[in-house]
Amino acid sequence: PPAWDGASRVTILLLGLDTEVKTDDQGQISPDRVGPARSDTMILLTIDPQTKTAGMLSIPRDLWVNIPGFGYARINTAYYNGEAYKLPGGGPALAMRTVEQVIGVPVQYYAQIEFWAFTRLIDDIDKITVYVEKKITLDPVGPGADEIVMPRGWRKLGGVEALAYVRNRHTQDGDVDRSRRQQQVIMAFRDKVLDPANLPQMVSAAPKIYGDIQAGVHTNLSFDDAMRLGMLMKDIPMESIQRGVINNSMVTFGNVTVKGQNQQILKPIPDKIRELRDSIFATGGALSPLAKGADALDLAKQEGATVSVLNGSYTAGIAGKTADYLKSLGINVVNTGNADQFPAATKVIDHRGRPYALKYFQELFRLNAGVQIVSKYDPTAAVDIEIILADDWAASNPMP
């Protein structure tokens, strides 16, 4: 991928694999992989340097989606297929393309962490502190490791305990609970590393941390870009990091037969997932730009989405007039013309996930987000957003 310019929004797919965990003679998690490589964990991390905000969106592994070139399957098989069929970019590339289609935003980078590196990084910083919201029984990996019953309350976790904590699915909400715990652990790690009181400890641990990251974290981010993003995250307060999970209200439950075996799947409800995405990418966090009262138009202009304005009304010239109006406001309109349809109401088609522009257009055109904003991810589309004008806009609009 191209080098990060330091100003654009960055979106990174965080991956953890479902390989069987193996231990060495000392009971440490081994670097050796055993078993199939499907993505056990998928978290979309977005960072906006312009507004000093960030967000995490967790994607359940049983989500039933269209995997490019392979048809419909659970989303966790995208990584496996990319590796098994030796596609360009392997498993990470196919996983990123699949997530792009499902969530509707471009994903430039990935970071895949090995289980052994996860445990060592937490041990390198001498444990993390989390608040256990419900009593949970963990099954740590390792010879002679006993089950751990954690009551509700604050708890310090070492590497092996933390791994068991983020992998446990045996709770009332299963994967949803697990996804929340994974985000919780990421935040706890961040808080421990960035706490000024821990600076001497972090400095002394830096060589080990660096070595474990180099050996156990695989990414297409350059070292320089990774360091710059790390410095940027230091400047983003916790209140400006929005977290979300695709939960049971955003899917329908189903069953399919694959190779003679019955599988339980989660079928996405696209509008609800898009609303969650926008809440994280555009309006997330108490200190997010829109929540702080930042002007939606200013944010849309900063985002720089390319826009096509098409006339789907019976009023001649309305597309050109609207395009000129939007250009006068600073919107990057690159195309006008006639639509091949006459919708009952104005609609916006989002090809690449431009949340600030969508938010502004929703206000300007008075759109019903669940009906008149359509997510149709297409990285080959000529523009980021298509606006198809209808008679409602032609009859009533703020243009001079």
Would you spell out the secondary-structure blueprint of this structure?
Layout: E1 10-17, E2 39-48, E3 53-58, E4 64-67, E5 71-74, H1 77-84, H2 90-103, E6 109-113, H3 115-124, E7 128-132, E8 136-138, E9 148-150, E10 153-157, H4 159-167, H5 175-194, H6 199-216, E11 217-219, H7 223-234, E12 241-245, E13 251-258, E14 261-268, H8 270-281, H9 296-303, E15 306-311, H10 318-329, E16 332-338, E17 347-350, H11 355-364, H12 369-372, E18 373-375, E19 385-389, H13 391-395
Parallel strand pairs: 1-6, 3-12, 15-16, 15-19, 17-18
Antiparallel strand pairs: 1-2, 2-3, 4-5, 6-11, 7-10, 8-9, 13-14, 17-19
Helix pairs in contact: 1-2, 3-4, 3-6, 4-5, 9-11
Major sheet: order of its strands?
Answer: 11-6-1-2-3-12
What is the domain tally?
Answer: 2
Quick one: how many beta strands?
Answer: 19
Can you tell me the CATH class of the largest domain? Alpha Beta
- Tell me the CATH architecture of the largest domain: 3-Layer(aba) Sandwich
Q: Could you list the spans in which at least 5 consecutive residues all have pLDDT below 50?
A: 283-288
| Proportion of residues in helical segments | 25-40%
Number of helices: 13
Quick one: overall form? globular
> How confident is the prediction overall: mean pLDDT?
88
CATH topology of the largest domain: Aminopeptidase
Give the strand content: 25-35%
Measured between the Cα atoms of the first and last residue, the distance is 44 Å
What structural class do the secondary elements suggest? alpha/beta
Radius of gyration: 23 Å
State the fourth-level CATH superfamily of the largest domain.
LCP protein
Largest sheet: 6 strands, mixed
